[in-house]
Specification:
The complex is a heterotetramer, with 2 copies of chain A and 2 copies of chain B.
Chain A lengths: L3 H5 L3 H4 L7 E2 L10 H14 L9 H20 L8 E4 L2 H16 L5 E5 L8 H10 L2 E5 L9 H7 L4 E7 L11 H10 L3 E5 L11 H4 L3 E5 L10 E5 L1 H5 L11 E4 L4 E3 L13 H17 L1 H19 L5 E4 L8 E6 L4 H10 L2 E2 L1 E3 L4 H7 L4 E5 L6 H17 L5
Parallel strand pairs in A: 1-13, 3-4, 3-5, 5-6, 6-7
Antiparallel strand pairs in A: 2-8, 7-8, 9-10, 11-12, 12-15, 14-15
Helix pairs in contact in A: 3-11, 4-11, 5-6, 11-12, 12-15
Chain B lengths: L1 H5 L2 H8 L12 E6 L6 E9 L2 E10 L2 H13 L5 H17 L11 H4 L11 H18 L22
Antiparallel strand pairs in B: 1-2, 2-3
Helix pairs in contact in B: 2-3, 3-6, 4-6
The chains are: A alpha/beta, B alpha+beta.
Bound molecules: pyridoxal-5'-phosphate (2 copies).
Chain lengths: 407, 164, 407, 164
């Protein structure tokens, strides 16, 4: 079991005077970083910094090694067969766009269909809207039910020989839905479609094995898993990477440049144009070391336990509406309290030192479907504990009292 | 408590009984804006007469701050000339951003000053400003100037998932 | 005048045991960072970290303020009229690609022409090759002369009513050529073409004022100016930004998302999809503070002095061939020594603790034109001094001796 | 001095008098590879006979390491079966990456072992490997397998700046 007090001691942000009282319940938006990650970044800049792949001197070699070792670290963390299957991007969003421009632009034709789920974050929806528009393809939606769950049988009804891709999140950032991916992926594959898994909310919280999943593409962000901002990952099966075109040109992604035409470098480098965020990659690798040091099983169990507790404590509150599947879900609890607008609720809780998210969570289709404009959302990670849940509950009760006359 | 500075009685009144809620028929100005960071929306309709705001109404949903702000605004601008509206909007912006405000004559400004507490809550400035931003942009467009807001429309909204 | 020993004391990398003896002459590839920048990054993560623009709590507000203040800082540094004209990107390369996808894709038509100079880095050439190919447009090259200079009169010959864009570097990373931009920009504007300035090698070394230049677009990278990796800048006149489409979709760049279509946020945010590198932006702002603390005039003068000294000392070495304009140039000295391959030279110098760059410097068109496969390159910045130049000269003489029998 | 480990006499000999330099006419295998990080190029041509390398030649430019490596390689692989070539290539890779090397019988491996010093210079491993990578890829393609290297060709090379 995770000893939260020991873990919190690793996170300098919680030790700052201005954050002493902070109950941080917005890790689904971004996490904080343990000193081990900050030190890895700093250490890179202080010792090994240079432009990788470019210099024939030792410092450059150290930078190259740092960068490529980080790639191998990421590959190992997600169970990729080879490190060349890992492309570093700016964030999960860019990783989806890389698949949209690099793969879909070549392989999706007029009349083809792309299936996305109604649960998707805008980052795994809007790029497909644009592909559909550019290519004359059709978007089809896998709908979620009352509880926020998807049904593999419904997927069967959507799949056809026109299906090119299924874009599906492993865990919904808005409702917490955990999609058991294998049946969805198998059905998509059986119909000849590829599958892109949005791992932004799953990779940080649970062991993900791309080969066990048989995912064609997996995207996630470093900053949601204790890593730095400015680094994300696209995993893709090597054969798909090799069938993709780059969409960012210049710098290291070429092997040869003439006046009017150029040749590309090998994968994955051909997708990494210009000087890359080496410190970001190094920091992400350090975050993975940190998580593995605790054990992803322990992390998952901790998150599960806190989430279950939160659902248990929130559900009985009068006029509190919980959204999403019960009780098993990712560490995300979306709700509304009476008719208090989530912003007003968030401002109130903030005054009590409790940071929650309010809004559409970049999932407006989910909101639309639920007939909501916004929800309040609390999300948990390994530095949260039972007390944080207690403080949230107390805060909510106080808020209800405070806004009584506004209702 | 600072919260009470934000959630003043004046706002409560406007929030619970919004003035000028609705959509004017055949408006001279009609503009919908969204707060991209939270999804709050407002639809503002205005009728103009001789360079003055003759009628104003708003429709939308949002938090206390955005709704009360819209309600107060529609009241305050009625009968004013475009330049006067711009001047108040300017004052309002200063008020919610910096808490500073050169109070013009007249008690009709009491209700505007009730938003002074917003400046202590920077994340809520956008909520307070939504209606006013919509207003200014609507007036600008009405004045024949170009669209400021780059509406990228490549389809209709509000569709069902699997059309066609 | 710059006191280099004081400056070097700010750079932790030079204090590391493994780098004690280091003469770092590859700042044109990437620079090191003063502790002020590293501390700013660290400080952000330790105190203000959150996902900006998204939360209604104070921590998120601090993150938003940090990010948007960095944008204003950048705007001030390059003389932009308003901070909305600054888009944060991953690096200079991505910034060029944003103009290629966002602007050129809409405004360049079949038969149109894009003028690039033969001096361009691949990052300011390959994106235009691809635009030309996609749009059926033609690339025209502004050639450099024997000395490595461009001629505004030659530009006149290339300009026509078909010209849409001139892509021109302010300082060449391969030859050091400083292009006096105004005449080029004025002529391009007179013909109705826009101008993209590659400031990757100029913004770090000299005061650049986009309004004085009347540049339509300016790109540069943080990591070449003491800032972090993973952050770059596109400056664009607001009217161009507003006439541009985003090419990365998802996350914060939208104002509203439906099932099949979406609306974009305002500029510049509509170009910043997904969670941004806030720490990177904060670090870049700190780098600008650091540079302004010294004074860009002083930095420029220091670089000029060292470069002049290097040219003076290298020119007389027998069988050493210098490339590029003399003596005025950016802080970049490209050369070959006898028939020693630049890689072999770089390895030799590295053994003496001297880090130079060898290769084509991502400027293969330059190499081709000069009939070379590669050059050795030494580049200077504010932490270099006369001693570094002396060590380089000594190292070169030793190299010549060592490789005597190989020639 | 470590440098002497890298720049051994054997390499000097091959660098100054490269063996099998040139381009074979009507080759069975013809492949050009570039080291993307430095621009070094090699054009390898091979003639095959009964599953063996009958003739091998290289053309190109580059540093001491890449040129000497290509020269030594073209000598060593002549007469060998494809599997034997692959085995040597494997050994060579280990050698220049890790300095480890299971020495097969025969003094013809002396010249290969002269590249042992490369492993101390990781930035130069790519130089040593360029010829061998080209060889392996050429053999693979010859064996009917698919292209490994994604050559993105959207035009001809070596043009003048302002054609047409
Ligand atoms: C002139 C020039 N332009 C563009 C770039 C690309 O910069 P980045 O690799 O940071 O994208 C560089 C740096 O290599 C450069 O020197
Ligand atoms: C499910 C999901 N997908 C994608 C993203 C986008 O991640 P990023 O903003 O790091 O690109 C997020 C985070 O907001 C998310 O929760």
């Amino acid at each position: 079991m995770i000893e939260v007090s020991k873990i919190r001691a690793d996170f300098p942000l919680f030790a700052q005077p201005e954050n002493r009282d902070l109950v941080y319940l917005d890790s689904a938006a971004t996490t904080h970083r343990p000193r081990q990650v900050l030190e890895a970044i700093d250490e890179f800049y202080r010792r090994d910094n240079a432009n990788p792949h470019r210099g024939a001197y030792r410092l450059a070699e150290r930078a190259t090694t740092a960068y490529e070792s980080a790639r191998s670290r990421v590959a190992a963390f997600i169970g990729a067969g080879r490190s060349e299957e890992v492309v570093f991007t700016r964030n999960a969003t860019e990783a989806v766009n890389l698949v949209a421009w690099g793969w879909a632009e070549r392989h999706v034709r007029e009349g083809d269909e792309i299936i996305v789920t109604e649960l998707e974050h805008h980052s795994n929806l809007v790029p497909w809207q644009m592909v559909a528009q550019r290519r004359g393809a059709k978007l089809r939606f896998l709908e979620f039910d009352q509880a926020g769950n998807l049904d593999p049988v419904q997927l069967e009804g959507l799949l056809s020989e026109r299906s090119r891709l299924l874009a599906i999140t492993q865990v919904s950032n808005a409702l917490g839905t955990i999609n058991p991916l294998r049946p969805f992926i198998d059905k998509a594959h059986a119909a000849g479609a590829l599958v892109l898994v949005d791992g932004a909310q799953s990779v940080p919280h649970t062991a993900v094995d791309v080969r066990a999943l048989d995912a064609d593409f997996l995207v996630f962000s470093g900053h949601k898993m204790l890593g730095p901002l400015g680094i994300g990952v696209l995993y893709a099966k090597i054969e798909h990477l090799e069938a993709m075109e780059p969409f960012l040109f210049g710098g290291d992604m070429i092997s040869s440049v003439g006046y009017h035409s150029s040749e590309w470098n090998d994968v994955p480098w051909k997708f990494e144009a210009g000087t890359q965020n080496v410190a970001g990659a190094v920091g992400l690798a350090a975050a993975m070391d940190y998580l593995d040091g605790i054990g992803m099983e322990a992390v998952a169990e901790h998150d599960r336990r806190l989430t279950r507790l939160a659902v248990e404590k929130l559900a009985p509150i009068d006029q509190l509406h919980l959204y999403g599947p019960m009780p098993e879900r990712g560490p995300v609890v979306s709700f509304n309290l009476a008719t208090i607008h989530p912003h007003d609720l968030a401002t109130f809780l903030d005054q009590k030192g409790i940071a929650i998210r309010s809004g559409h969570h970049c999932a407006q289709v989910v909101m639309r479907k639920l007939g909501l404009a916004a929800t309040a959302r609390a999300s948990f990670y390994l530095y949260n504990d039972e007390q944080d849940v207690e403080r949230l509950v107390t805060g909510l009760l106080q808020a209800k009292d405070y806004f009584k006359k506004w209702l | 408590m600072a919260l009470d500075e934000l959630y003043q009685e004046v706002l409560l009144d406007h929030y619970k009984q919004p003035r000028n809620k609705g959509v004017l028929a055949e408006p001279d100005i009609r503009l919908e804006l969204k707060n991209p960071f939270c999804g709050d929306e407002i639809l503002l309709t205005l009728k103009m007469a001789e360079g003055r705001v003759a009628e104003a109404a708003f429709e939308g949903h949002g938090c206390v701050i955005s709704q009360a702000s819209a309600s107060v605004m529609t009241e305050k601008i009625k009968g004013l000339r475009v330049e006067e509206v711009a001047a108040i909007a300017d004052q309002f912006t200063h008020l919610v951003r910096e808490g500073k405000y050169e109070r013009p004559e007249g008690e009709e400004f009491d209700e505007i000053e009730a938003f002074a507490g917003v400046c202590e809550f920077p994340t809520r400035v956008k909520c307070a400003m939504l209606a006013w931003r919509t207003l200014l942009q609507g007036l600008k467009e009405h004045g024949g100037r170009e669209h400021l807001h780059d509406h990228h429309a490549h389809g209709a909204e509000g569709e069902t998932p699997n059309r066609g």
